[in-house]
TrEMBL record:
This is FadR family transcriptional regulator. Keywords: DNA-binding, Transcription, Transcription regulation. Pfam families: FCD (PF07729), GntR (PF00392). Residues 9-77 form the HTH gntR-type domain. The keyword Ligase does not apply. The keyword Transcription regulation applies. One of its GO terms (molecular function) is DNA binding.
Amino acid sequence: MTSVHSFRRTLSSDLAQAVVALVESEGLRTGDPLESVKALAARFDVAVPTMREALRRLEGLGMVDFRHGSGIYVGPNAGRRVLANPLQSRPDADQLVELLEARRQIEPSLAMLAAEVRDPAGIALMDETLAQAQAQIASGDDRLWLTNLDFHRAVAAAGGNSVLVEVLDSIVLIHAEDQREILRLHGDADDDHAEHAHLAGCVRRGEPEAARDAAYSHLDHVVEVIRARRR
């Protein structure tokens, strides 16, 4: 028998997908306003709390943005073609290590390419996400994990190859909840940010080998932390 909780989760997921479809059909872009929670609830014929739950799911993925006293807006991730499954179960430590080891095979080469090409848009996004992460660390913002994912995507984007960016997306965004768990287990946001800043500096200065080594060392360090915590 389907529980009430399971039904609510399914309804919430369906509503979240409906909102994404609404954004696409109306051609809305990041920063564009959405209808109020009450208006959206009326549009989809559901209770306001149920609608709010669906929107909060989308907020966690960066698809919508709640602005206190202002309203709901289209979030920065609304145009992404690859997104996490918000219903996946919490991964165990072995799965997290496998994910990190997969990233360790790919991201150092992407960092090396980024330092060689230094695509201006990718560099700008890299610097923007670093600054945003620093502010989120200071404020205790629980969306830091998403910004950290965007930093790694920005490094890939600095390489100027959109296909490689999509390859990385297919790993880090589909496994986004795993990434959130990795940050929780790592437990040192300042240390993590310092390693990101070092990698960004290598890319910005055009030091391919140093960027490659910085990316590898960063992921290797995270693997060590996760392995130590599973013992």
